[in-house]
Amino acid sequence: MALAPDTKFLPGLLILLHLPGWSFAAPADTHCICYNFTVMFKPPPGQRWCEVRGHVDKKIFVLYDCGSRKVITLGPLGMKINATKEWEKQTETLKDVGDELKYLLARIKPENDTTSAPPTLQAEMCCQREAGRHTGASWRFRFNGQMFLLFDSEKKTWTKVHPEARLMQEEWEKDRDLRHVCVLIHSSMNPSWENNGHRNFHPIPPPPMAIATAITLSPWIFLTCLILLGI
């Protein structure tokens, strides 16, 4: 996958990582912020090809439809980012990442895959913070609802979870640009945590009409790399 370090979506992604207000209750608390992408290569009529959910401690603050570019922001943090002048660029970034994941999905060829459903890729990038400091950053990738690969941004290593992910792992381990982007995004978000003050923020659950995903999203899933955290 030719995902160069200066790929067009990266500048916009770094803007996301430095939004004001990415801070939470107390420095001693443990928090996790994630972005979930669900991408379908050839979705059936009426289904979205790409959907994004941003959530803090499993509570959603933003929903995004890459196709219609419709955004639903939730809670105080959602209101904050929606009020920033950079938000239009940020939504473009989400779509660009969705496009990159769709390109990656087209290249995935799991061994012995006999499913007839449209191939679906789920990518989740998460950052964790505990006792006022960064404690972890990772990507989780699912193909057709099954966990296939993990990427540890700290150790820069891939881990095969599914026995049929051997070919995917071999190809992605050779992709230095992909690894560079995954690590760069997480590294860029860490300074923003220290620069932000600790303000109270309580994300709220999504409304009943929230965007539905093609596959049920678990708390930790797949991602060809994306997220921000300011705790």
Automatic annotation (TrEMBL):
Signal peptide residue numbers: 1-25
Pfam families: MHC_I (PF00129)
Protein name, entry field: MHC class I-like antigen recognition-like domain-containing protein
InterPro entries per the UniProt record, alphabetical: MHC_class-I_related, MHC_I-like_Ag-recog, MHC_I-like_Ag-recog_sf, MHC_I/II-like_Ag-recog
Gene Ontology cellular component annotations, sorted alphabetically: external side of plasma membrane; extracellular space
Subcellular location: Membrane
Keywords noted in UniProt: Disulfide bond, Glycoprotein, Membrane, Signal, Transmembrane, Transmembrane helix
Annotated transmembrane regions: 209-229
Domain MHC class I-like antigen recognition-like positions: 30-176
Domain of life: Eukaryota
Main location: membrane
Listed GO MF terms: natural killer cell lectin-like receptor binding
A GO BP annotation: immune response
